[in-house]
Amino acid sequence: MIQDKDKILKTQQSVNDYLEYIKNCRMIYSKLLELQIAQQLCVTMIEFINLSLKSEIILTTKMFERYLLESLITIKILNREKYHIYRMNYAIIKNKNSNLCTTITLLKKEIEKLRKYSNIENKELLEIQNKYFESEISTNILAEEIQNIENKYDKQFRSKIPKYCYGFEHNGYSFQAHLLETQVLPKYTADFNESKKELDEIETKYYKNNEIREYFDIKQKTQVFKKLQDNRSWKQKAEAAGLSDAYENFYSSSSELIHHTTMSLLSKLGFQEHEKTDSLNTMDMIISNILDELKVLVSKIIPDSNIFFIERD
Length: 313
What we know:
Blueprint: H1 2-28, H2 33-54, H3 58-80, H4 84-133, H5 139-158, H6 168-171, H7 173-208, H8 210-215, H9 224-228, H10 234-240, H11 244-258, H12 262-266, H13 273-301, H14 305-308
Helix pairs in contact: 1-2, 1-13, 2-3, 2-13, 3-10, 3-11, 3-13, 4-5, 4-7, 10-11
């Protein structure tokens, strides 16, 4: 186990060294998406190693392994398919736009839901207050009944698992809706409009590029994003990257643990010693391969890049 830990720590240092090199490259080639991807991947790999060395939970490490394998598949495809970087650039901006659109839709639904609960709760509170004024109910009993009503609706609302309504129990439904509508929603709307502008700019830029237009068989501007969309499954991407066997091995085992199945329900969470060793060795192999592929990728876009990077012994 000690040897395996030392081995992956050495790999981590290699990644850290390469990260510093990439940061230096970005000072000169700041707009290259390949360098942005390389930097983020290096940071992620370093963090995953740190977390995996500390973690005793199989599920956590399996998620790391799966993410890293998908990263390796992606980088291999980038090296094998000349124009895949354009697909990735499109996907980054498109996914950002789609996520913002989804967030705005969800926010509007939760604002509507808050107002609905506010109306229902206020109606029932008003009824109990009218009942109090028409009878001899004591103030203490009224306060208790009001609290019971508020608790009932708060419990119902929490059961819906709202995402953006933290603080509704303290703020109340109506004021929480007001906060979301006036402070949160405008920010996401502005971000969405900005990302939409980015999409329009990319669409124009790609359509004007004869090489891109010819490769993706783009006949008109409105086809740009449809043609650039990569609809391959991870299984198909793994095949394109020459990693079909690795995909089958990782996905079958990780899916059983990541999703709530009878297998995951009955599986133990902790590692045995040999499982921890296997996991570290697996992660070391994947990360070493990613690092090799990143060096190939960067060497294609930066002239004489190997001259500027000296790996530790």
